[in-house]
Amino acid sequence: MKVLLVDDSRLARAELRRLLEAFPDVVVGGEARNADEARAQLAAQRFDLLLLDIHMPGETGFELLASLEAAPPVVFTTAYDAHALRAFEVNALDYLLKPVQEARLAAALEKVRAQMQAEGSGTVLKPEPAAAIPALLTGQDQVFVKDGERCWFVRLADVRLFEINGSYTQIYFDQHRPLIPRTLAQLEARLDPKQFFRANRQQIINLDFVAGVEPWFSHSLRLTLRGGAEVVEVSRQQSVRFRELLSL
């Protein structure tokens, strides 16, 4: 996977280079400080991924994309989260906040690999086995959530509960309750088990939001979550795991 780094900050480009060294199937094919240099690089050679800053002298990252007839897959790298919605509107694969975390970069690269494989690109190199597994999402990660016409860019640390609602999953954060087309099993496979706990067949909780625990029927537990009125009943089997997880 050949990557073009586009960022007016030399230090930011150097840090991305350092992080990308952890991925054997990735090579940095070029660097650009602004939109003009990026266009020249893109005209001169083929890239599989554009790691693109938004705020640069002259044209922004969005303006660069708008000027291109064709562009490789794009992952934005920026210090601001205000442009997340627009980033996904221009079909960016991911949106990484600076300082970029290796786990988030790994997840973004996995999205690129998946798209390359779906398109049948002959340039895909087989990743190391560890890289083939998407990185777990921690509380510090941010996710894009869309429900109807409303959109959010949510830090997972602020999500207190995931709950099945029909064929969708409802996400509880602040006073919002959007629905997403994901199953709990899909979410459980991506969420860090040290922070997100499958309480029962219907719910996954953020352990940081547990405000109270009380014994319940048949050796099960009942949890009260702060920040809302939710009360979660932990199944008997999961109550055993809950005690083991949080006991000294």
TrEMBL record:
Residue positions, PTM 4-aspartylphosphate: D53
Ranges of residues in domain HTH LytTR-type: 145-248
Coiled coil: none
Name under which the protein is recorded: Response regulator transcription factor
Native source organism of the sequence: Hymenobacter jeongseonensis
Domain Response regulatory stretches: 2-113
Entry keyword set: Phosphoprotein
PANTHER family given in the database record: STAGE 0 SPORULATION PROTEIN A HOMOLOG, TRANSCRIPTIONAL REGULATOR-RELATED
InterPro entries reported for this sequence: CheY-like_superfamily, LytR-like, LytTR_DNA-bd_dom, Sig_transdc_resp-reg_receiver
